[in-house]
Amino acid sequence: MNTNTVRIYEILKDNWGEKKATIILDYLESETTLKVEKEVKNKMSLLATKEDIYKLELTISDKYANIIKWLFVFWIGTIGTMVTIIKVL
Q1: What is the pLDDT of residues 13-41, one digit of tens each?
Q2: Contact 50/57 with Cβ under 8 angstroms?
Q3: What pTM, to 2 d.p., does this model score?
Q4: Which pLDDT score is estimated for 70?
């Protein structure tokens, strides 16, 4: 028990007796534990795992490779157009 729990226990014990104070505190602690566990589960579902990060890295690298490919296509097309214009002139 921490100091706050002891203080609450003392107040409850003075008003309702030792047995009821113990029952109430046990109930409050179990409810608090359940709420904390539920909140942790909710937060865990939002966290990224190593597998999620790996999949994201693969997706980003695939997109990056696709952009580089299209840049080369654009550059080759531009060079071809420039060579054609120079030959015509």
Answers
A1: 888 888 988 898 888 888 889 999 999 98
A2: no
A3: 0.46
A4: 94
Q: Who's near 25: CB < 8 A, 6+ residues apart?
A: 5, 8, 9, 12
Q: What is the DSSP string of 40-72?
A: HHHHHHHSPPHHHHHHHHHHHHHHHHHHHHHHH
Residue type at position 42:
N
In b/e form, how buried is each residue of 29-47, taking b as 16+ CB within 10 angstroms?
Answer: eeeeeeeeeeeeeeeeeee
CA dihedral sign of residues 71, 73, 79, 81:
negative
Q: Which one-letter DSSP state was computed for residue 17?
A: -
Question: ∠ CA 67-69-71 to the nearest 5 degrees?
Answer: 70
Do the beta carbons of residue 8 and residue 25 sit within 8 Å? yes
